[in-house]
Each structure stands twice: as C-alpha cells, then as structure tokens.
Amino acid sequence: MMMKKLLICSLAATFLCLGGISFADNGPADMMLQAEKDKAKKPKPAVFPHAKHQEFAKCADCHHSAKDGKQVAYVDGQEIGKCESCHYKGSGLPKKIETYKGAAHANCKDCHKKSAAEKPELAEKFKGCMPCHPKK
Ligand code: HEC
Ligand code: HEC
Ligand code: HEC
Ligand code: HEC
Questions:
Q1: Does 37 contact ligand 4 (Cβ within 6 A)?
Q2: Which of 102, 108, 122, 130 could share a disulfide with 116, CB 3.0–4.6 Å?
Q3: pLDDT digits over 3-27, tens only?
C-alpha cells in the first residue's frame, strides 16, 4: 500500500516536472520582426532566428521588464512584453533606445559587433545591414 502511494507520488512528480519543461514558453523559433507603431515609410522587417539565439544567449541578454520607467532585470518565468510596448516614439525613454528600431539596433547590433570582434569569421556574415535585413 505504502509502495503504491510512493509510486503514484513519484509518477506525479515526474509529470509535473515534464510539464514544467514542455510548457515553458520560449516563444516562436523563427520570427520576422517589424515595428507596428513607428513603422518607417519603407518598412524593413528583420529576420530573427529566436531558437538559434537561445542556444548561446541568455533570455536576460534581450528580455527585461520595467517599473516606474526604470529597467527591471529579467527573471525566469516573467511575462515577456513586446519591445514596442515600451520602446516607441513618445515613450520618454532615452533617445537612442526610444523606438523599437533604436532599442533593437542597440541590442542586436551591439552584440553582433562584439561577437564579430571575438570571432573574426563572423565579420563577413555581419557586414552592413546583414544578416538582419537581407536584400530581396
Ligand atoms: C543585428 C540586426 C540588425 C542589423 C545589422 C540592422 N538592423 Fe535595422 N532593425 C533591426 C530590428 C530588429 C529592427 C526592428 C524591427 C523592424 O521594424 O524592422 C530594425 C529596424 C530598422 C528600421 C525601421 C523599420 C521599420 O519598418 O520601422 C530601419 C529603417 C532599419 N532597421 C535600418 C537599418 C539599416 C539601414 C541597417 C544597416 C546599416 C540596419 N538596419 C541594420 C535589426 C537590425
Ligand atoms: C537574442 C535575443 C533574445 C534571446 C536570447 C531570447 N529572446 Fe525571446 N524574443 C526576442 C525578441 C526580439 C522577441 C520579439 C519581441 C517583439 O515581438 O517585440 C522575442 C519574443 C519572445 C517571446 C514572445 C513574446 C510575445 O510576443 O508573446 C517569448 C515568450 C520569448 N521571447 C521568450 C524567451 C525566452 C524564455 C528566452 C530564453 C530561453 C528568450 N526568449 C531568449 C529576443 C530574444
Ligand atoms: C516593460 C517595458 C519594456 C519592455 C517590454 C522592453 N524594454 Fe527595453 N527598456 C525598458 C526600460 C524602462 C529601459 C531603461 C531605459 C533607461 O535607461 O532609462 C530599457 C532599456 C533597454 C535598452 C538599453 C539598456 C540595455 O539593457 O542595453 C535596450 C537595448 C533595450 N531596452 C532593448 C529592448 C528590447 C530589444 C526589447 C524586446 C526584446 C525590450 N527592450 C523590451 C523597458 C522595456
Ligand atoms: C547576445 C548576442 C546577440 C544578440 C543580442 C543578437 N544576436 Fe544575432 N547572432 C549572434 C551570434 C553570435 C550569431 C552567429 C551565430 C552563428 O553563426 O554561429 C548571430 C546570428 C544572427 C543571424 C544569422 C543566423 C544564421 O542562421 O546565420 C541573424 C539573422 C541574427 N543574428 C539576427 C539578430 C537580431 C534581429 C537580433 C535582435 C533582435 C539579434 N540577432 C540579437 C549574437 C546575437
């Protein structure tokens, strides 16, 4: 009787655990990023392989939240808002990162620049507006 209860308990724990893994929301694997609020006259959608970045970057390298207009560091399991829900024209954030374009360029381009400095073989891949805005 006792054993049976133990077995059921450990089975339940296993399922809870598996559930925790399979339901963790890592977001879409591949995305096409495009500003909605501050869309440029000539939209420039950006290619973003999200899952691939999760293999080497931490969630906190890109995600955070905010309180009273100040950035709050990412914590596991937090709600993840669209960048543009906070970074948009008139948001009052510093000019360089006020808009989605500004925030994205600061986040994406800065890391690509750093990565290319560390791994010269990436320099070619990261030339100009590549690989984010590929020519059609
Ligand atoms: C490392 C990735 C990356 C690189 C490199 C990059 N961008 Fe972007 N860019 C983005 C992201 C992400 C956005 C925000 C999503 C969007 O609106 O396209 C964006 C937005 C923009 C927008 C606004 C588009 C719109 O519809 O509002 C313009 C214009 C733009 N980029 C121009 C450029 C130019 C010109 C270059 C090269 C000199 C460049 N970007 C290089 C990632 C990049
Ligand atoms: C290299 C940058 C980067 C990394 C690393 C990253 N993300 Fe993201 N993630 C993004 C961007 C950019 C978006 C699109 C945001 C938008 O649409 O404004 C996004 C979107 C999401 C969304 C969808 C949000 C929505 O619109 O509903 C979820 C969920 C998410 N990420 C979870 C995660 C988790 C969990 C991790 C870590 C395991 C992670 N991300 C790692 C950049 C990143
Ligand atoms: C809940 C609101 C909110 C969301 C969602 C948000 N940000 Fe921010 N972000 C802020 C605030 C507030 C700051 C701090 C501004 C300051 O320095 O005064 C900030 C700062 C930044 C900075 C400059 C500081 C740093 O960490 O390098 C970048 C770059 C940035 N955000 C990019 C992004 C990107 C990319 C996304 C989407 C993946 C995003 N933010 C989503 C509110 C937000
Ligand atoms: C924490 C650092 C970091 C951030 C932040 C980051 N990237 Fe990257 N990204 C990389 C590195 C490193 C690679 C090269 C991966 C490789 O080829 O091994 C890469 C590769 C890419 C590629 C090419 C993928 C391929 O299959 O060749 C695209 C497209 C890209 N990034 C877009 C973006 C966009 C858009 C953003 C912002 C939303 C972004 N990245 C933010 C580090 C970063």
A1: no
A2: 122
A3: 555 444 444 444 444 444 445 799 9
